[in-house]
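Reviewer has doubts. Consider these tokens.
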Amino acid sequence: MADPLLFNPRTYDPAHFDPETRRLLCATVDWFEERGKRRLIEDYRSRAWLEDFLRFAAKEGLFATFLTPAADAAGNADKRWDTARIAALNEIFGFYGLDYWYAWQVTILGLGPVWQSGNADARARAAELLDQGEVFAFGLSEKTHGADIYSTDMVLTPSADGGFHATGSKYYIGNGNAAGLVSVFGRRSDVEGPDGYVFFAADSRHPAYQLVKNVVDSSKYVSEFRLERYPVRPEDVLHTGRAAFDAALNTVNVGKFNLCTASVGICEHAMYEAVTHAHNRILYGRRVTDFPHVRRELTDAYVRLVGMKLFSDRAVDYFRSAGPDDRRYLLFNPMTKMKVTTEGEKVIDLMWDVIAAKGFEKDTYFAQAASEIRGLPKLEGTVHVNLALILKFMANHLLAPAEYAPVATRLDAADDAFLFRQGPARGLGSIRFHDWRTAYDAHAGVPNVARFREQADALCAFVTTAAPDEKQSEDLDLLLAVGQLFALVVHGQLILEQATLTGLDGDVLDELFGILVRDFSAHAVELHGKDSATRVQQQWALGAVRRPITDPERAARVWDRVEALSGAYEMRP
């Protein structure tokens, strides 16, 4: 019997979506399944460009249907920007291979500045290119400066026709080899400061667009390209001034969310392989899964994966319900980027410890997963960047709750138009949140939820009585340790909210929060050891350490769920 908590192509039926969305999701699964595991792995190993996949996506209108906002859909009722179905497709792409997801992901990033623009011609051109099956690219980062857009060396010199000539290089630009439209960030040569920023649309096929190379050894074409006096016409300009800066950050807000569900998909496929292998391997006369440490590692991997999925699914609801007066998604978004993707690394590592050398074999999906899972925490800003961003919300989230109407599960066929009119990318410290304690109170009878709640309450006491002083606030190493503790509280909150909405099995929830108790204790010990931690902070840290509440019978029941994954899915050869 398939586990209802995990994606399984054999039983997949996205009945909660509208007919066209269901058709496209199932058609995508069928395309990969028909292709088969051997071909999938060979394409990955040979670094083949994704022409077959992109032809399939173009034929089905996949990108055009999922990535065209309703305002630009020319009345096509199936086209909309719907975060729930985008998340579902992320998971499918991750399940079969991150190369496919990457071409889609950077198309999303490339579209961000366009859909935020008031340039009707550029929007119409983007919609037409999507209909033609083209991919897009996001020309933001540079070799010398990375994503430090304050220091961009893409320079636009005014031309006689009212436009510009653009000269400069971009680096780490996905789809830069084939994009029908590249959204490029630069600055004017004749205007100083933020008023000189420009976002413009370029075509990778133009003679003044010089493709230098693929900077990675992968099917993912992560390009370096150079523009040499590229003619930027007035109709190519998407944003100028501060609006261009905001468009860059708001595009990343939209795009970084996709990393969490891609990570979930990778882990799901790898878990079927790992459990099946371990459960059918005999060592010293015993099944590998009869060893207690193997059961613990695979159980930990399973419940961590369930937590990743619960958090990501609930975060979708806040994205879709966001508006000018509700920007809570700006916390949950870097959480999906930072926390969910690093959980994905832990899930793979736990399984790899079990299957050991099998995880290197060239005919396994796992070998691919073990490599690709490392990339997601490092894309769209590092873990440290996103953790530092999360810290901006800590005081308001923990100590100053506000009243909000409950956010429902958002699987409706609606266009998430607010994502392209987010407004100025500032004011994060003033965003308020609903009371995080409500979710914990609803599950107070679950032993490890109650135990973790003790730690969460202790963190509130830390913020009010032992928070880093002005000098310590300059010590990012110390602050990041505090951020990890806060991230766990937020992680637990959305998991509990989703558990309530879905009726999650109580045993799984209890096991999961036992892990969160251990994680909080580990980060508290790390804080205790920081060079600049004060004696009061050290004492608090040791006082926050807790032991999870164990229950062998509960653990055995959860293990039964893990064991049932053996043979539950195997991709056809």
